[in-house]
Amino acid sequence: MLGRIIDHTRKASPLVHCMVNLVTANDCANLVLASGASPIMAEDPAEVCEVVSACRGLVLNLGTPSPRKIEALLLAGAAAKAQGKPVVFDPVGAGCSDFRRSAAHRILQEVQPGVIRGNASEIQTLLRGTVAQRGVDADDAAQDPLALALKLAQASGAVVVVSGSEDIVTDGKTAYRVHNGHPMMHSVTGTGCQLSVLIGAYAAANPGNRLTAALAAVCAYGLCGELAHKRLGPLDGSASYRTYIIDALYHLSADALEKGARYEIC
Amino acid sequence: MLGRIIDHTRKASPLVHCMVNLVTANDCANLVLASGASPIMAEDPAEVCEVVSACRGLVLNLGTPSPRKIEALLLAGAAAKAQGKPVVFDPVGAGCSDFRRSAAHRILQEVQPGVIRGNASEIQTLLRGTVAQRGVDADDAAQDPLALALKLAQASGAVVVVSGSEDIVTDGKTAYRVHNGHPMMHSVTGTGCQLSVLIGAYAAANPGNRLTAALAAVCAYGLCGELAHKRLGPLDGSASYRTYIIDALYHLSADALEKGARYEIC
Amino acid sequence: MLGRIIDHTRKASPLVHCMVNLVTANDCANLVLASGASPIMAEDPAEVCEVVSACRGLVLNLGTPSPRKIEALLLAGAAAKAQGKPVVFDPVGAGCSDFRRSAAHRILQEVQPGVIRGNASEIQTLLRGTVAQRGVDADDAAQDPLALALKLAQASGAVVVVSGSEDIVTDGKTAYRVHNGHPMMHSVTGTGCQLSVLIGAYAAANPGNRLTAALAAVCAYGLCGELAHKRLGPLDGSASYRTYIIDALYHLSADALEKGARYEIC
Question: Domains in chain A, please, with CATH?
Answer without folding.
Answer: 2-265 (3.40.1190.20)
